[in-house]
Amino acid sequence: MSKLLVIAFAPDEAVRSVGFAQAVGLPYDILFLTGEPATDLGADRCLAANLSEVPPADGIARFLADFAAEYSHVAALSSMRSKDVMARVAGRMRAGMITDAIGVESPSVFRRPILAGSIIETVETLSFPILLTFRPAGFPKPERTGASSVELIAATIVSAATRVAQTAQSGTRPDLGQAKVIVSGGRPLRDAETFERVIGGLADRLGGAVGATRAAVDSGIAHNELQVGQTGKIVAPDLYIAAGISGSTQHMAGIKDSKVIVAINKDPDAPIFEFADLGIVADLYDAIPAFVQALGDS
Amino acid sequence: MKILVPIKRVVDPYSRVRPLPDGSGIDTTGIKFEINPFDEIALEEAVRLRERIGDVEIVAVSLGTSECEEQLRKALAMGADRAILIETDQLYDPLGIANELAALAQEFQPDIVLMGKQATDDDCNQVGQMVAAILELPQATFASKVETVPGGVRVTRETDEGHETLELNFPCLITTDLRLNEPRYVALPGIIKARSKPLDRRPAVTSSSPKIRTVRVEAPPARQAGRMVTGVSELVAILKDKGVL
Ligand SMILES: Cc1cc2nc3c(=O)[nH]c(=O)nc-3n(C[C@H](O)[C@H](O)[C@H](O)COP(=O)(O)OP(=O)(O)OC[C@H]3O[C@@H](n4cnc5c(N)ncnc54)[C@H](O)[C@@H]3O)c2cc1C
Ligand SMILES: Nc1ncnc2c1ncn2[C@@H]1O[C@H](COP(=O)(O)O)[C@@H](O)[C@H]1O
Predict the structure, then answer these.
(1) Residue A77 bridge partners (DSSP)
(2) Per-residue b/e over A243-272, b at no fewer than 16 CB within 10 Å?
(3) Which residue CA neighbors atom 18 of ligand 1 most closely?
(4) CA-CA distance, B41 to B38, in Å (whole number)?
(5) Taking CA atoms, what residue in A is nearest to B209?
(6) Is the pTM of this model over 0.90?
(7) Which of A159, A214, A281 is facing B178, going by the closest CB pair?
(8) Treating both helix axes as pointing N-terminal to C-terminal, what angle do A57-67 and A80-93 enclose, rounded to 10 degrees?
(9) CB of B32 less than 8 A from some CB of A
């Protein structure tokens, strides 16, 4: 039977997955692994595993591979967690997988970026089931429809790997994946304290999230979960402000879906000016305080 | 201890790539090929483990055409003890690659399969997890720190929220993130010495038809060229006008 199973690793992923599910055009069920399920997302069945946290990949993948056996498509929002788990589910099911779908041409043909987004690949699945991760930005926001009842799923999960420590999302800033405004900083932010004061200060003034380049993360100026790009987070805010960022292919791969990109760079030849909607040639240490001040006046 | 390090030959991540006019693939004229950066990090980590704990055999393996020899030679120069080229002209999808790597691992019985989290050409981020699933090994993907503990490893890995630490018993599979280490520069003596290290070729052994197929490739839609503004107050005015502030 042709049917899509959407896996929500965290409850808020479900609502962001419906646009993709509807683009595939098949009936779909949603499996909430953790947290309180939302029942008004147009799913045939709303399934809840009620786990307190997502276990290490080997355990959860075994459970999901058994559970997914009756579906033609199994999909989850792209994240480091879904990539860790879904490809293992595919391996266990000896199934194909399509990573980071950004477009749907038919239930068997999808589009996805390759080579850090410098090429778009159209890829066809030749067999089912197919596993997918997708980026939500290109898919429309759903209308909330009809309530389904919640079915509890018993999940007994055994992992050979043991989790001995874990950091949780810290701070009060919005999540990078969902923020309307993101202020990002690059290598020239001298140290962690300066980064937080300058980049964090503007982000807070705008109620936005903070992002960083790999160069900033590598030099210890910013935390790794803030890295935006090919190998970091993929973001799609209304406003992306890039301060002291050169505009490498790898960084731009993560911000292409932003509505408005603003670049502040003191080098007029910086590649980022080729991508930015609005650019200012300026020293960020002058421009950002001036920006904050201009906001304050209004 | 034995460590198996898969090495993929990829287009230089710093080069600008274009699709061929007929959309059948990438135009590779004048483009350099390198070891996938994440695989270089995996190999470097294997070499560092050997430097720390002594008795470690490192085998590098690549699946692809005879051109992959170039990257395997470099892997030998970086410190792999021997290399295996699974030689094929055919195109493999990630599951097909995983099947081949898993078959080799079954023969070689490594304590650790240590590999890149993602190939910078296809950006799939699949093969490691698939190999782990096929061999039923515990996995730690996106590693930013690897320490040995009795009977296994303790791996700090990058997560959406920050990081977490997993403990795995041998045998296990680890995929590398960028911050695990900075690969060493290979000096000339290493390259010369590597010429005498064994590099064996063998055919592919598994046969399953691909599950996915590339239909075409194309350039992404170009972003509209933007405009320069002279001052911050002008910028703020435009952003308000666009409704994003
Ligand atoms: C496999 C691979 C994956 C990668 N993945 C990612 C990724 O996911 N994300 C990512 O970001 N990178 C990634 N990179 C790294 C990427 O190639 C670049 O090296 C990195 O993005 C550069 O960061 P940057 O712009 O902060 O630094 P730089 O390139 O050094 O640019 C700094 C910029 O700041 C400007 N500047 C300096 N001082 C000031 C000042 N006072 N005021 C204003 N402007 C100033 C300079 O003119 C320059 O343009 C990856 C690389 C590889 C090989
Ligand atoms: N042809 C190949 N030969 C050897 N290793 C490979 C090959 N393709 C992929 N790999 C390994 O699998 C990892 C993930 O690749 P991918 O899933 O394609 O992003 C890479 O970092 C390599 O370690």
Answers:
(1) A134
(2) bbbbbbbbbbbbbbbbebbbbbbeeeebbb
(3) A248
(4) 5
(5) A126
(6) yes
(7) A214
(8) 60
(9) no
Task: List pLDDT tens digits, range B21-64.
Answer: 999 999 999 999 999 999 999 999 999 999 999 999 999 999 99
Of A88, A123, A164, the CB nearest to B129: A88
A45-56 pLDDT, tens digit each: 999 999 999 999
The predicted pLDDT at position A146 comes to 72
Backbone torsion region of residue A242, taken as left when φ is above 0, otherwise alpha when ψ lies between -120 and 50, otherwise beta = beta
Query: What residue type is B78 in one-letter code?
Result: M
* CB-based burial, A144-156: b 16+ in 10 Å, e otherwise: eeeebebeeeebe
Q: How many domains does chain B have?
A: 1
**Residue A4 token pair:** 């899509």
Q: How many CB pairs under 8 A join A and B?
A: 269
Q: Which residue has the tokens 């008004």?
A: A40
**Max CA pair span of chain A:** 61
Measured in angstroms, how far is the CA atom of residue B118 from the centroid of ligand 2?
7
CATH code, domain carrying B208: 3.40.50.620
Residues in chain B: 245
Q: A86 in helix, strand or coil?
A: helix
- A199-226 per-position pLDDT tens digit: 999 999 999 999 999 999 999 999 999 9
The Cβ-side half-sphere exposure at A246, using a 13 Å CA radius, reads 8
The bound ligand whose nearest atom lies closest to the alpha carbon of A97 is 2
Contacts of B55 (CB under 8 A, 6+ apart): B1
- ipTM of the complex as predicted: 0.96
> Hey, what are A140's tokens?
């429309």
Residue nearest to atom 38 of ligand 1 (CA): A188
**Domain of B86?**
2-241
Task: For residue range A174-188, list pLDDT tens digits in order.
Answer: 999 999 999 999 999
Classify A16 in phi/psi space as left (phi over 0), alpha (psi -120 to 50) or beta: alpha
Using the Cβ of A278 and the Cβ atoms of chain B, whether some distance falls under 8 Å is answered with yes
For residue A112, what are the β-bridge partners?
Answer: A121
Residue in A83, A245, A280, A291 to alter for ligand 1 test, most ligand atoms within 8 A of Cβ? A245
| Ligand 1 nearest atom to the CA of residue A213, by list position | 11
